[in-house]
Amino acid sequence: MQNLLNTYSRFDVKFVKGKNAVLTDENGDEYIDFTSGIGVVSVGHGNERLANAICDQAKNIIHISNLYRIPPQEKIAEILVREYGKGGVFFCNSGAEANETALKIARKYGEVDGKPKRYKVITLENSFHGRTISTLKATGQSKFHQYFGPFPDGFEYAKDINDIYNKIDDKTVAVMIELIQGEGGVNPFDKEKIQKLSNELKKRDVLLIVDEVQTGIYRTGEFYASNLYEITPDIITLAKGLGGGVPIGAVVTRLTDVLKPGDHGSTFGGNYLSTRAGIEVCEILKEEKISGRLDERIKYFEDRLLEIAKEFPNLFDTVSGYGLMKALKTHKSETRDEIVKKAFEEKLLVLKAGSNSVRFLPPLTITKEETDEGFDRLKTALMKVNE
Ligand SMILES: *Cc1c(COP(=O)(O)O)cnc(C)c1O
User: Fold this and answer.
1) 136 contacts 145 by C-beta, under 8 angstroms
2) From the CA of 94, how far away is ligand 1's center (Å)?
3) Which of 289, 321, 347 is the last residue of a domain?
4) Who is most buried in 18, 206, 226, 291, counting CB within 10 A?
């Protein structure tokens, strides 16, 4: 690792093989993956259908640039818009880049000839929107802001959903939120509050940007978390689960006339390879959803989590989250760190989030056997934490 920048504190393990929710290291030891690469490998490791689609595409055209029409890009846009309502899509390569795009759309939307420009974007405390300079500024966690200023102007933080109303003024053009704060600890917002917010913002002509980089593409059980909350945001941003591991970001919006040629772009965005992967992921998951298998898995995983929470009341407060985006909240932050470490020793991969959440983002294709094996290991780990 001596040639890598020291930006991650990594576990010392090298995986050489993956099959759905099972990863095998170089010694042949098998791990259960309850992280799916932080919500990315939505159809599991080594998914044959996805691999065939990618291979097929790679043997033909991988990339041609956005100077020419790209059929798979048009096809996946149709899928994303169908689940949204009416609008259009811009493709990029990551969550941060999708959010940057959303911010640019909002900033241009606020640019009205003859009137003072509206540019302010309100985000929430404890949010996470990315690592670029402006998405970092949009991220309402001061620990991320320590070294990298000065930041772009025009961001303001609201304490919670109710506080958003206090922060809106005549310079406000948009509100950007997650519906379930992921990195912040897997904290879903109240559905009625979100629906009210959506209605209020419409009345005030303030855009609602929903960052679905983590929640999008069936992670919560629905195509968009916005479907679950029964709202239609002005802009939805996507990335993590969309390509099943192939980097892709997307912005879905009803505002199809704001950006004009030259206003925005991305060299790699929406190329043949990533959009072909995205189509396959959406098709696989749609079948899982329609057949009822996805909902069954969600229910099974949730039951196992509730069981664990009940079995270890000394360690856990509650279970939070929707679909296969879940967390066990520990009483103490140190316990949480200890659990993640002990789980790893039992060859189970789980994630941290917020200050006291053990986060679970398994592949959406996880089998009952993999779930059972993972929870057996979790239980063994928790008994060691107890000691
Ligand atoms: C992961 C994440 C991002 C950042 O995505 P990158 O692809 O790492 O840039 C932004 N918003 C949310 C909600 C995320 O979970």
Assistant:
1) yes
2) 7
3) 289
4) 226
